[in-house]
């Protein structure tokens, strides 16, 4: 005859305010670790910074896979609906931006406007930056990186005579 034993498990809670990351061996506040229900203290063993670096490295290592994944994911019905809704709302919030972008795209299509390389680095993959939306065809051509940096206030644009 076999004996049955029953174990009573109780949830164990650690109350700590600091933790050491197993990747960088740095002691950091517990708020610098993502929550993880299956860990003893309820937080992941590596800090948020190390986790982010691992995620970026993994994405770069498997870039083709993630590009295909992102394309397929963007085709899901709820994502298409969300994207359409964002476009509709942006048209309502900033109609002048929408009209300026539309005017630039039509001018490029009709041959009235041609794209130039980025005025800062010369990259041929560019977007048109509008300083004034009331002048829709008056654009400065910037690559995606420099356009983002400009809007974050990290760089300034060259004078207009040098930009065209």
Brief description of this entry?
By secondary structure, the chain is of the alpha+beta class. Helix content is 43%, strand content 15%.
> Ends: how far apart?
91 Å
User: How many domains, in number, for the residues?
Assistant: 2
Strand order of the largest sheet: 1-2
Number of strands: 6
User: Helical segment tally?
Assistant: 6
Structural classification: alpha+beta
What are the secondary-structure elements, in order, as H or E? Answer: EEEEHHHHEEHH
Low-confidence stretches: none
Reported for the largest beta sheet, the result is: 2 strands, antiparallel
Provide the residue-averaged pLDDT: 89
In helices, the fraction of residues equals 40-55%
Q: Rg, please? A: 26 Å
Taken from the alpha-carbon principal axes, the silhouette is elongated
Percentage of residues in strands:
5-15%
Your description of this structure?
43% of the residues lie in helices and 15% in strands. It has six helices and six strands. Strand 1 (18-20) and strand 2 form a beta hairpin. The protein is elongated.
Task: List its traits.
alpha+beta; two-stranded antiparallel sheet; 2 domains; 164 residues; 6 helices
How do the helices and strands line up, and which of them pair or pack?
Elements: E1 18-20, E2 27-29, E3 33-35, E4 43-47, H1 48-61, H2 63-74, H3 77-93, H4 95-110, E5 126-130, E6 139-143, H5 144-151, H6 160-163
Helix pairs in contact: 3-4
